[in-house]
Structures are given as structure tokens and as C-alpha cells.
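haha ok so turns out i had the wrong file open the whole time. this is the CORRECT one, sorry everyone. sequence first:
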Amino acid sequence: MTDIKTPKDHMILVPMDFSDASYSAVYYAVEMANLFDNDIALLHVVSTGAIKSFFTNDTEIALLKERVREQLEKVKEELLEKWPNMRVRTIVEEGKPFKSINRVAAENKCDTIVMGTNGASGIEQFTGSTTNRVIKSSKIPVIAVKEKKTDPKFDHIVLPIDLTKTSRQKIDWAVKLGAKYDSTIHVIMELDEDELAMKKIKANLLQAESIFKKHNVKFESHLLDDRKYPDNLGQDTIKFAEEKNADLIMIMTKSESAKLADLFVGSYAEQIVNSSQKTPVMCINPKPTGAKSTGGSGFY
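then structure:
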């Protein structure tokens, strides 16, 4: 797999607000760290807005940060009790949560962010809005999780692809995860009445299949019929994932087709990331595409 152009394995960043959702994210991060030999960074961002609203002097702010650090250290201790060889560090930052998360990810050369999709009041500050902002602005993949699983797996990964170049960048990550988890990748594309479009769809599907075969990654291909899947690709992806009891959906956050764009626009985006979707979603911001291939999957 040396020709798969994905970021090097460095560190998994887990933003924590001490809500149930953020604890769920920790379990996914631990599973991934064990497989990929990653370090884990537990991050809490003390919101600048919250500080201005509730605290009046530097002493109170310092006490708050110390309390937060103690909570993170407690989580770290619990992880090391179960996984003694795990490499875990704790980080406390002050600022706007989504900006601090992205900055810390860059400074620590993280290759993935794993975070919960719902927050709460008070110190549990990572609301759906923060999650969406991280997803939309992050330069590295973000896995948004909700349900708590103490032994999470990615046995079945749903991979919707369309005709855009950026959509195909998910193939490398699908290979990376599929090979490590021994997953089955469910490649889905929607049927199109246009004959030329269907030729392109089938050509892309064959190309994806050849990559999975090359790297010995299990896969199944599915062309979604409008009679059973009449909605846009985003909604159809959710329906398909639920039917398959999938463990992960992999999507691009930008530059998808108009159908999939609905997945991350307005209230529907908040719905899938923060509330309605139980399947974890891996969100990948696309790299700029060009005419030249950089190797890897051949899709760039």
C-alpha cells in the first residue's frame, strides 16, 4: 500500500467537552490508534465567549483551565488503565472552538479528527454548529460519531461516489481503512437516465473496483435505482447505510454533485451530523484537482 497517497500516521485529535458524544469519540479514536499505531491528543477548548460571560478575572480563568486539565488527565488515566501501551497527551486551549481545533490539529500534524456530534450546556460546549464548522474547514478528515460503542469496528463502510474528480479522492481513504479493518466497502452510485452519464458512472465504478482488487480490499458495488431510492444521493446514502447496518459513511464535504451537496447545506447538514444519523460519518475536504495524476489511486 505504499502508493496510496494518504496523510502519514501521526496523531488522532479528539476534541472533548465531556459530553457522552465526546466520550463515544474517544473509543473510536482508541480503536484507530491501536490499528494505525497513532498517538491520541485529548483537547478541550475553553471558549473565549464563555470566559467573558461567566468569569471576571484571571484567577477564575486559571482555576477553570486547571479543572478542565484535571478532567482530561482523568480520562487519560482511564485509557491507560485499559490500554497501557497507548500514547495519550492532553491539551487545554482558549479561543473559538472550531478555530482552535483546526490549529491544534495542524500544529501536532494530526491526520484525523474524531469528535462527537452533539453537545450540551455549560462546559459541554461543542454544539452541532462547532462540529459542522470543523467539518467544513478542516484540512484533514473528520469522523463525526454519536452512538457509544466500547468496541467500535468499521466492518461495513458505505462509499457514495459521483462523477466529480474530488469525489474519487475518498478511494484512498477507503483502501486505507478497509485494509486495516478488513472491511467490506459498499460502493454506491445512482442510476442515471442519460446514456452518456451512465457510461461514465460505470467507468468510474470499474476504476474503483480495480483499485480495491489491487489492494485486496473487499468490496461490493451497488447502483441505486430511483424506484427504491427516489431521493437525493445524500438521503439515499443514509437509507442504504441503515439497511446495511453500516459502521461508517465516507463523504466529501465540498465539490460533490448537486445531489450530494444537500448533505452539507443548511438544516439537513446539521441533521445528519448532529442528530438523525447513528452511523459515524467520515468527512473529507477535497484537495484541488488537476489534469496530472500524482500516483496513488490514479484519481487525483
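The first helix runs from residue 20 to 36.
again sry for the mixup
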